[in-house]
Amino acid sequence: MGNKQTIFTPEQLDAYQDNPFRQRIAEVFSESGDGNMTLDDFLDMFSVLSEMAPRDLKAYYAFKIYDFNNDDYICKSDLEKTVNKLTRNELTPEEVSLACEKVIYEADLDNDGKLSLEDFQHMIIRAPDFLSTFHIRI
Amino acid sequence: MGECGLSTAGRTTRPRAVPELHVPHSRVGVSALCPCSQEPSPDNEGALHSSFCQLIEEQSSLVAGPSALLPSLDPIASTGLEPEQGEQHPGYATTLRILANMPSRTIGRSRGAIISQYYNRTARLRRRSSRPSLQQLNRTARPSLRQFDLESDPAHATLADKQSLLAKELLSLPPAQRSQVLMEVPLSLEEKRSLRMPSLCPHPPQGCRTLWYRFLALVHAAQPWHYALKQISGRFGSSVLSYFLFLKTLLLFNIISFLLLLVFVVALQAAYPPAVASPPPFTGLELLTGVGSFTHSLLYYGYYSNTTLNDPSASSPSGSTSPSRATQLPYNMPLAYMFTIGASFFATCILLMYSMYHSFLKSYRVGSSTGVLAIKIFSAWDFKVVQRHSVKLQSENICTQLKELLAEQRLRSCPLSLPQRLRHITVLLLAWLLALGTVLGCVVAVYYFSEHMHTVSTQEGVLLALPLIVSLLNTLMPHFYNLLAAWEKQDSPAAEVYVAILVLGLLCYQWLSRRLICSCWETCVGQDLYRFVVMDFIFTLLDTGFGELLWRLILEKKLKSKRRPEFDIAQNVLELIYGQTLTWLGVLFAPLLPAVQVLKLLLLFYIKKTSLMQNCQSPSKPWQASHMSTVFITLLFFPSFLGAAIFVSYTIWWEKPSETCGPFRGLQTIYQTPKVWVELLEESNPNIAWFSWIPQYLVENTVFLFFLSGIVLAVIYFNIQVLRGQRRIICLLEEQIANEGEDKKFLIQKIHSIYDRKVPRGKCWGSAGMESHCAPLLRAGAGGWE
């Protein structure tokens, strides 16, 4: 990280982590939405990803990270992109599609075919590991 | 007309066949449509509501007479409408856009909606006690109506107004709650600062605060092993990290016990050493066996005196040498010994229960256990892992786990045939019988071996034989159980701890029955336990060396495979639990044993970390870190700590201390010490006779104990009932949410069916038919439609 600049480009952050979601994290936390972060955005990011952040706040930002097309719903295409990023495209398309259908079936409470923020938060409440995995140690 | 895939029968089950909205004559997936960018801003709620109201009005006026409403609908339908495929319903995009802009849906999108939501929440916090009036809708069960309060009110339409309102509400909260609410609001740091700004003024001056922050930063930086833990979690993930955090917790317990014993017992006895014969010279073997020059040292029970130290009434040999300062405080050693041991157990118990409570809070969830796949996908990625190779491994692990889960679900949908099930059950039974058989075999073997050892002459080196055999069993059994688990394809790390606990139970029984052999039996037991602790440490080192280092060399050089040995978390944690049980058992007989355990844990941390970094790779089994840490803390509490506490309590209450050594010589039981002390006090000062009332009527009175246990049982029962009620409420709320979804679908169906009826102008529908369609629409969601 440079000392003199106030904006961190995605390439600089890229060198620090090998996370498959790093592009999405940068986009979600940057003010302009293109991945460049000011110091405040950077602090925001680490404060949300720290140990002390409450679960609902983490769930809110996790939802935004997994929502690739920014339409405030995690639809099936978002889920497919997530699964492919998690497994580095190792699963076959049928398996990916089956997994996404199962996820929507399990988590969608109001039956509109995609996950809204409430569905996501309701599911995260039942995932005790979420707090410890959605956490970056500084 | 109005074909629909919904099933209205059985509102409790979600309809399985319809994951998406059904539109008559077309099957457009919802995901194909996105609300376009030129939609009206959610801040402009008035425009949205008025457009929807207009829509309903237009439909209801159809009842009065067929007017040409289609042209007036077109402007709404055409604004921002994307070209759709094929036979698309003209109003569909509009309704979806309106739905997408409903207050409950805009929470994630607009800052105005977030601020309104938190304003309502904060206001609710403030006036929690008062019941809101019927006109207020923010207590309704329907989420879509709850935000009605602030957003439909035209006076609060602007963002700045909402912000100032929220800031005002926050000011009215107590500071702790205020910072809690501010922590949860998903706004950026700048906005949180601006919300917090008005509240900063009436607070203590800046200098205080900067000092406090500096102190907090220092405390955070002073945490031991912070960077080492970060390195470990960066390469291996949360699961391996949980082992090292567990080690850190155990270190804390031991340090607290050690400090208590040091300050109140050991240091004072060291200052006033009893007159003993000169000890034999120090040979290196004492570090392993604990006998020889260690026998009459601070390490064991036998060294401690049973008199009052520094007693002024005792005749001092030479008055001139004793200092005339006010250091003539007499110190009752037996009382101090007993109470310090009790206090250290009590402190450990409180800390353990606190850790268990925190672990349970994080990992236990009320409600159903469905949704495994969804949870796996969204919480499986460990963001702590940083290194490239580990990230790749993690991806592979997640891929394997997802494949297994999908295969399992496929299997569940087509259940096993009868012969396969029988085979599965026989395999399970066999594995269980084998496990039980080996446990019993180990216990019997240890029993006969220790009996044999007592008949043989006690040469120093031979004393190590029993600890060696027990540690060997403890090291080999887990590997055997791993094989069994691989065979029966099930995971049960708790089975390994039963071997260790049963063996320890047997040994406890033997130690207590050995009073007749040893003259100072407490010191003998203390020496035995010291040997066990040292041997456990040596075997852990050997296991690390052979299991990890040697195995990696074999894999690399001989088998030429890139795979490295995995770090077996369960086995390592169980070794830690076993070592800690030994320490707790031995505290009464060897007060410096916690110090030995502290040294052992410190060395173990560095050795395990080095071996991990050099030799191992992260485990490939799916490991729920938080669930397993709860299991480990519970195992530490239930068999381990409680067993040790029961053993020590039994010794204090019933066993006769030895006559020749130790602080309790001459008494009937150790428990008599406070009674003797109270009698002494009464003799010296008859005014405090009431003090003897406390142990007599509180501690020894059975009625009081029954009363206490009755209260504890009542609290447990109450909590169980609360949990049951919460489960039922969760079911009810899930039903309500499903009903909301059905209501929405119903409304949309109705609107579309009305459009469709309107389109063919030739056909005319009687007003009765129209009413039966529109009236439910106007009543917004009552039941009853054909």
TrEMBL record, chain A:
GO terms for biological process: calcium ion homeostasis. This is Calcium and integrin binding family member 3. Keywords: Calcium, Magnesium, Metal-binding, Repeat. SUPFAM superfamilies: EF-hand. Residues 54-89, 95-130 form the EF-hand domain. It comes from the Eukaryota. The lineage of its organism: Eukaryota, Metazoa, Chordata, Craniata, Vertebrata. One of its GO terms (molecular function) is magnesium ion binding. SMART domains: EFh.
UniProtKB/TrEMBL annotation, chain B:
The keyword ATP-binding does not apply. InterPro entries: TMC (IPR038900), TMC_dom (IPR012496). It is a multi-pass membrane protein. GO terms for molecular function: mechanosensitive monoatomic ion channel activity. The chain crosses the membrane at residues 250-272, 335-354, 425-449, 461-481, 493-512, 533-554, 582-607, 628-653, 702-720. Keywords: Membrane, Transmembrane, Transmembrane helix. The keyword Membrane applies. It is found in: Membrane. Residues 520-626 form the TMC domain. Belongs to the TMC family. This is Transmembrane channel-like protein. It comes from Chrysolophus pictus (Golden pheasant).
